[in-house]
Design a protein that fits this description.
It contains 3 helices and no strands. The chain has 197 residues and is mainly alpha-helical. The N and C termini lie far apart (152 Å).
Length: 197
Amino acid sequence: MRAGDKKRILAVAAASALGIMGAGLAFAAGDGGHHVTPPNMDLVYRLMNFGVMAVVLVILLRKPLKSALGGRIEQIKSELAELEAKKAAAQAELNEVEKRLKDAQGEREAIVAEFKAQGEFEAAKIVESAQALAARIKAQAQFTIEQETAMAKADLRREVAELSAALAEDLLKQKITADDQTRLVEEYLAKVQREVQ
């Protein structure tokens, strides 16, 4: 509300108050002569006084009140428009935040799914590597067992042959006579001669 409007309203209010007080004083002073008036006339005078004051107030206060109320109405409209704009901006921001939350939720689910898939892939690779390593270890163990077995068999054959030769030699020493020895040498020489021819 402008300062000029406030002064005008105060002036009209002061004038109205003075007018009402003056009318009341004049009416009170009129009873000094003890004139008897009919009881209804008193009410009529009061109603006329009120009517005149109401007309004067309407005439005097119409423009200042209209401008003051018009300014206030414009101010309220402006504030409402501003609040509506703020509400729309807040709603747009809320929608944006909700959209970002939904997008973030989708991204989170995608990341979790990707990590899960990678984990499963890595687990499969680890299992495959472990199986390949186990197969290599098993093959190496089988090869080592076969080598050790072959070596043990060869050692055993050699020992058996050595023991057999030693045992045969001992038996021959005990049972063969000089005649048997001569005969064996002659048979061996004859055999060699036949093969040479």
